[in-house]
Design goal:
By secondary structure, the protein is α+β, with helices and mostly antiparallel strands. It has 11 helices and 12 strands. It has a 12-stranded mixed sheet with strand order 1-2-3-4-5-12-6-11-10-9-8-7, sandwiched between helices. Bound molecules: coenzyme A (COA).
């Protein structure tokens, strides 16, 4: 039996330049990059700079000295505070294309060795079969499929809300109503699909996320008012760090909601158009949006306002139950 010498170590930029090869070989976002007109080289540059950013831990695996895989974890402070656990996203799970083993080893390493990790939140491209198999091996739970859509902003299209609707920037006195809408509309999210998450906590998480957007300069909130009452809202964002690195101003539509009694009369599409109009005025050249792949009304309004699907991801959760150690630890040595 031949055994390879496997070594796990935190990413070190001065030693692990080979990670670039893993980014360059990753094929699953090629169409998305093409539609954004961002070269793979600039994307690899950007990703390399994020590996040691705040709140991120990156672990590399070497087999017989050669770097063969990488896992990155991003601490999720909001979710951690909300659920009272140390929660992390997995922005990268990369390895070669010989099978799922290297990815499974990276996941097991994190689950078994990193005591501070209670929960992992992992998105992978639908066609990244080896990543899906590795997640199954490591006991992850499937919680939904997300579509990523994008469009280049060309002309600044005018928008035309229904006659009784005014779309305007959210003012302080609108916030309470926006938060009410969030609680009554954001019911079908990935947390609601995870049986280990309490429904009331999943709902209030979205309320908290939206509340947090109001006072941050990168977010813009627009509301649709009908006779003074808020009937819907949309929140968009510009991403300055990414913009600087790829040399193009990009943005995203992050949250949208319309009161159930006012749906299917064009408010959602009008809010999308108003947000796109605002972003075009801010100089944004490319806008992305993400939604559950079975959220047909949300998909419909994105198609109607110029978006096309650029990639699709499977979403997984992993809760790590650690054995409780009672009493004081025995002293070693
Ligand atoms: C998504 C949402 C904002 C759309 O708002 P809306 O005001 O109803 O949007 P519009 O009236 O502009 O358009 C809705 C479209 O979806 C279509 N639609 C509604 N239900 C549908 C279904 N089950 N399957 C397919 N299409 C559907 C409508 O027919 C309409 O299309 P049309 O104008 O071509 O007929 C609203 O449904 C909502 O608040 N959902 C809950 C929150 C959410 O899911 N947000 C997105 C994720 S952040």
């Amino acid at each position: 039996m031949s055994m390879s010498k496997v070594v796990f170590a935190p990413f070190d930029g001065s030693r692990d330049g080979e990670v670039r090869r893993l980014f360059m070989e990753y094929p699953h976002k090629d169409f998305q990059l093409k539609s954004m007109k961002v070269s793979k080289e600039s994307m690899a540059d950007y990703l390399e700079t994020t590996l040691q950013s705040a709140g991120r831990q990156t672990i590399c695996i070497r087999a017989n000295g050669k770097l063969v895989g990488l896992i990155a974890l991003q601490y999720l402070p909001w979710m951690s505070e909300h659920f009272g656990l140390k929660m992390y996203a997995v922005p990268h799970l990369l390895a070669g294309y010989e099978g799922p083993l290297v990815r499974a080893r990276l996941l097991r390493y994190v689950i078994e060795e990193l005591q501070e990790v209670d929960f992992l939140d992992c998105r992978i491209a639908v066609d990244d079969v080896y990543a899906a198999q590795a997640l199954e091996v490591a006991g992850f739970r499937y919680v939904g499929t997300e579509a990523y859509l994008g469009q280049e902003l060309g002309r600044d299209e005018p928008f035309d809300p229904p006659a009784d609707i005014e779309i305007a920037e959210c003012i302080r006195s609108d916030r309470k109503q926006v938060l009410e809408i969030v609680e009554s509309t954001h019911l079908h999210n990935r947390f609601a699909c995870d049986p280990l998450i309490r429904t009331d906590l999943a709902r209030s998480l979205y309320r908290k996320l939206v509340d947090n957007c109001f006072d941050q300069p990168q977010f813009t909130t627009l509301v649709a008012r009908c006779r003074g009452a808020v009937q819907g809202f949309i929140i968009s964002k510009t991403n300055e760090t990414f913009c600087q690195l790829v040399g193009m101003k990009t943005g995203s539509l992050d949250f949208i909601g319309v009161r159930p009694g006012n749906r299917n009369r064009g408010l959602g599409a009008s809010l999308n158009r108003a947000a796109l109009h605002r972003m075009a005025q801010q100089g944004v050249k490319y806008v992305g949006v993400r939604t559950f792949a079975n959220n047909y009304p949300a998909l419909r309004i994105t198609f109607k306002t110029g978006f096309a699907v650029t990639s699709t991801s499977l979403h997984f959760h992993r809760w790590i139950k650690r054995p409780k150690i009672e009493g004081p630890y025995p002293l070693l040595g």
